[in-house]
Write a structure and sequence with these properties.
Elements: E1 9-16, E2 23-32, E3 35-45, E4 51-57, E5 66-73, E6 83-90
Antiparallel strand pairs: 1-4, 1-6, 2-3, 2-5
Length: 91
């Protein structure tokens, strides 16, 4: 495991869906010893064209914390999916 450094981190992902109207959420969370320290979430309405969503987060406990990020839809009908590519987190 690597620990965060001071400064902003940018998480991003490209996504699309053949089902219009889904909302993609990209969330970055910071943890110290399994305890949530902070988070940021960005949302985007999906279309059939590829779109990029980004979320910027600055750690509150640099040097002590780790980050995770996830992209998801909530309340999507069963069988409806999305396509995602080029997920990354950079500082």
């Amino acid at each position: 495991m690597s620990f965060t450094q001071a400064g902003a981190y940018t998480a991003s992902i490209w996504a699309r869906s053949d089902t219009p109207g889904l909302t993609l959420k990209l969330r970055v969370r910071e943890y110290v010893s399994g305890v949530l320290q902070g988070s940021v979430t960005q949302s985007m309405a999906l279309t059939s064209s590829w779109q990029q969503v980004t979320a910027v987060y600055t750690p509150v406990a640099p040097g002590q914390s780790s980050l995770d990020f996830e992209a998801f839809t909530s309340n999507s009908p069963v069988g409806v999916c999305l396509q995602a590519d080029d997920a990354s987190i950079t500082r």
